[in-house]
Amino acid sequence: MSSSVEITQRRLAATARGVGIMCDFYAERAENAEIWTTEGKRYIDFAGGIGVLNTGHLHPKVQAAVAEQLQKFSHTCYQVVPYESYVSAAEKINAKAPVGGTAKTFFLTSGAEAVENAVKVARAHTGRRGVIAFFGGYHGRTNFTLGLTGKVAPYKLGFGPFPADIVHAPYPNELHGVSVDDALAGIQKIFKATIAPTDVAAIIVEPVQGEGGFNVTPFDFLQALRELCDEHGIVLIFDEVQTGFARTGKLFATEHTGVAPDLITMAKSMAGGFPISGVVGKAEIIDAPAPGGLGGTYAGSPLALAAVDAVLDVIEEEQLCQRAQTLGDQLRARLEGLKGDIPQIRMVRGLGGMIAVEFMQPGSNEPDAAFAKKAQTHALENGLILLTCGMYYNVMRFLFPLTIQDNVFAEALDKMEAALRHAAQ
Asked: What cofactors does this protein use (predicted)?
């Protein structure tokens, strides 16, 4: 077995510089919420593959389902030779999707593909071209989804030009001085100055911004978007790539909001680590593209669909929505309890198990990215993997597997607290 130093030398020589790497070690094996490196060190994983592992690393039921499918066939391309598991998974998701009517689903491979195809569907349905997205939003790394993404560094640097007919609107964030009324006024200004509402095919928004800082989009703002879309015949898309599949205490974060979008994009934790994504939405909108207009060579992989079926069963059988709320409440209470000792903690927020903490410099409204980085580094050195995010890199987010054992979760919270106290010194 090569050492991590040797592998790093090989990596630098063989792989692209633009693929940024956070850790200086290499995974050898993983189980539930724990990873062991090639050199035998154990880490508790609070990154979860960036929100992919709500059911943990190699959940036994997911592993068994994929192994069983692998004994049958691995690929035919669904558009050439279809298979029943695609239909069955769509039926399960349709029955649970909060889109306010009869639902249909189609599958793809990545979250970015789901977003692009949702926009394609909206354009086919409306015959329009424009799309409104929001500051701080994140929707993927393809050229089109980078155009939708509302954060420049590091995603958009050096990669333009981006597609036309994408407009960014202010995102309501009281901590950063933008009210719901301000954000709605911003959309009205867009309608006056940039693109008419009759030319807008879709508005896309995350119910909880992921990369943007785990900002919970105000529910009254989402309701206002619903009314605006109904008024002007615009398709409302909720991007649930990171929020879906029990992370927020509901199967979809949409269920918290009281608002029914027209389309929902899905990926990440829907297959327990296997690459698949999808779009679910109102049948009359989903069916707008003609046959052949949607799909992809790997879209709806039979291996990943076996995982989807198992993940949905695990979420129900192990009550992971309730588990997300329980763990999220414990984490939130721990962070809130540290405010008196750690003045950099400005806000703890989130839904269910999708929790983040934002750091500001004491006595000011200046984002404190240095504090977040110092705490993250200390945690990593002591066996806890944490992620930062936010427009100013001053937010720490927590994406632990919802299947994590109680004792491992308690150990991780102790390591997290130690890291925050160290950074405050």
From this structure: pyridoxal 5'-phosphate
- pLDDT on residue 153: 87
Contact 109, 266 (CB under 8 A): no
Beta-strand ranges (E) seen in 345-424 are 345-351, 354-359, 384-385, 387-389, 395-398
Domain assignments of the chain as residue spans, ordered by start:
4-59+319-424, 63-317
63-317 has the same fold as 4-59+319-424? no
Residues in the chain: 425
**Fold of the 63-317 domain:** Aspartate Aminotransferase; domain 2 (3.40.640)
User: Cβ(423)–Cβ(375) under 8 Å?
Assistant: yes
What contacts 47, CB < 8 A, 6 or more positions away? 385, 386, 387, 399
Q: What is the pLDDT of residue 21?
A: 96
Q: What is the model's pLDDT at position 141?
A: 96
pLDDT for 76 equals 98
Q: How far apart are CA 144 and CA 61, in angstroms?
A: 36
**For the domain 4-59+319-424, what is the CATH code?**
3.90.1150.10
pLDDT at residue 2 in the model: 85
* CA–CA distance, 365 with 377 (Å, rounded to integer): 23
Give 12's pLDDT tier (boundaries 50, 70, 90).
very high
Place of tokens 């301000």: 182
Which of 354, 348, 308 shows the shortest CA–CA distance to 328?
354
